[in-house]
Amino acid sequence: MNPPRALHARLALCAAAALFAGCSVLAPQPDRTRFFVLTAAAPPAGAVAPSPGALALGLGPIDLPSYLGHLEVVTRADPNRIDLSPSDRWAESFDDNVREVLARDLGARLPGAHIVSFPWYPTTPLDYEIAVRFERFERAGANSTELDAHWTIRDGKTRRTLATRAARFAESAPDDAMESAAAALSADLAGLAGQIATTVAQLNQARAAHGGG
Fold this sequence. Notes:
- By secondary structure, the chain is α/β, with parallel strands linked by helices.
- Helices cover 34% and strands 32% of the residues.
- The protein has a single domain, classed as ABC-type transport auxiliary lipoprotein component (Rossmann fold).
- β3 and β4 form a beta hairpin.
- The termini are far apart.
C-alpha cells in the first residue's frame, strides 16, 4: 500500500471510529424519571376530633415557599442550599397536591364537615376559615422530612381571628428512598391536619356553650 492510500485508510478508520463513538453517545437513554404524590392518612385511633356537626370550613389560602414550586423534588442539603432531584418528580403541582391532601386529612378528622377550598364566593356561608402559611415543607437530608408552618382560624361570618398557631413536624424515614420520603411528608401533613382539627372542634364546642354566638 503506497503512503497516500495508507493515509486515506487511516483517516477512514478514524472517521468510522468517531462516528461509532458519536452514535453510542447519542443513542437513546432509558428514562429514569419517577413520579410521586402525597397521600391522605387515616387518623390514628382516638385522633378524630369530637364531631362538630355539619360545619362549613373554608380552607385557604394555603401558601408555600416559591422554591417548592418545582416539579423536581426538593431536598434541603444545608440551611442555605437546596437540591433538585435529577429523576424524582411530583406527579402534579406540589401546591395542588398539598391543598388536596390537607383537605382530605381535615375531612377525615372532622366527620360531617364540608370543606370548601379557597377561593370561594363572598356569599359562601362558612363557619370558619383556615389559612396556612408554610415556611418549610421538604426533605431534610436523605432520611428525614420537615414541616414548619403557621396557621390561623377566623370566624367565617365576622372574619375575626379566633386562633393562630405555629406547627412544626418532623418525620424520620427508614431509608433514603423517595417512596419513604413521600410517606414521611404525608405523615407531617396529617399531623398538621390533626392539630387544626382539634382546635376547630374546641372552638365550635365553646361557641355552642355560649349559645352559638
